[in-house]
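Q: I'm writing up a methods section and want to include an example of the input and output format. Could you take the sequence below and give the corresponding predicted structure tokens, formatted cleanly so I can copy it straight into the document?
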Amino acid sequence: MPPKKDIANLLIDAALKLAAERNWHDVTLIDIATEAGVSVADCYDHCSSKGDLLRRFVKRVDREVLADIDSEDFNEPGHDRLIAVIMARFDILSDYRPALRSIINAGGDLGPADGLRAIKTHFGAMRWMLEAAGFQTAGLHGSMRVAGLTAVYAKTFKHWLDDDSTDFGPTMAYLDRELSKAANWDRQVEKGFGRASSICGKIGKRCRNFSFKKPSRDGDATPAETPSDQATSSTTNS
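A: Here is the clean output for your methods example:
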């Protein structure tokens, strides 16, 4: 029996092997456990579904990409870093293309719950890819960047699946064009957020000024009236 820590990877590798050999929809968890050489009970302990194994595979790929990053890479322009990160991901996935084609053709064979988890996993993966390339992903603007890269990656992934070149040059050229389009969109969003922030600041200032000058009830001092003003007013009236 393999060590417990290796069982998850054995199951992932077995699942991908079977996906490359047959229709992913027809592959069962029992088939995967048998191919991996682990008991059904151990399979149960390490995964809840085929979708769970796919999410673990995505996380494994994420880790391989991130483990290959050098601090010197951050001296390059962000656009180039992002291309390098995404292409490194495709290089890792290249050995699994037959399996990935089978899985894509079957729509992942995911139910609604697994489908939502898969979306969350891919958003998380793209957030890490952006961070690895030196981009900010916090806040609303960051979330929009993640969503944008997820869309770019999905389109490029389909292109890559049919790219039979040895160096994936056509895929890189396609990715370059799509990221350039996304960068233009990102700059417009950034300007929009800047204008919105400026407008909100002006509105906030006017609201504070209005509150400061608001007339008070009879007999009460207004916010703009100081105790010395009140004393002067009382002396004058008497």
